[in-house]
Amino acid sequence: MPYVDGFVIPVPKAKVEAYKELARKARDVWMEYGALSFVECLGDDVPYGELTSFPRAVQLKEDEIVGFSWIVYESRESRDAVNARVMADPRMQPGPDMPFDGKRMIFGGFVPFLED
């Protein structure tokens, strides 16, 4: 059964191009190690909700945009193996110029139950 990792992050508008560059590099690494799909999105119509919303979830600041992404794997076991290899890869070690605030990233693993 497929498995999905999902992410929501705040990206400074001034660092969008650096974020896109990092995302492309990350995609290449994840796909090399066995991910089936890697999708990156930047908010276009993401309203600030009264109680909950993507902006509230990541404590979005005025000079930031919401990033939303997901990675699909063959299974939970495959995901765990792929992520272990990715995290050990020198290309994926965090540097001093990360183009987003990782402390406000929301992430989790999900089991799909409906797909069309």
Write a structural description.
With 116 residues, the protein is α+β, with helices and mostly antiparallel strands. It has one domain (3-90, 105-110): 2-Layer Sandwich (Alpha-Beta Plaits), CATH 3.30.70.100. 29% of the residues lie in helices and 27% in strands. The chain contains 3 helices and 4 strands. The chain has helices spanning 16-32, 54-57, 76-88, and strands at residues 3-12, 37-42, 64-73, 106-110. It has a 4-stranded antiparallel β-sheet with strand order 2-3-1-4. It is globular and about 40 Å long. The model has no long low-confidence stretch (mean pLDDT 96).
Provide the structure class. alpha+beta
State the name of the first-level CATH class.
Alpha Beta
For the biggest sheet, the summary is: 4 strands, antiparallel
Number of helices: 3
Which stretches of 5+ consecutive residues score pLDDT under 50?
none
Report helical residue fraction: 25-40%
Q: What is the count of distinct domains?
A: 1
The arrangement of helices and strands along the chain is EHEHEHE
CATH fold-type name: Alpha-Beta Plaits
SSE inventory with pairings:
Blueprint: E1 3-12, H1 16-32, E2 37-42, H2 54-57, E3 64-73, H3 76-88, E4 106-110
Antiparallel strand pairs: 1-3, 1-4, 2-3
InterPro entries: Dimeric_a/b-barrel (IPR011008), DUF1428 (IPR009874)
Protein name: RNA signal recognition particle
Pfam family, one: DUF1428
Task: Summarize this structure briefly.
The protein is built from 3 helices and 4 strands; from the N terminus they run βαβαβαβ.
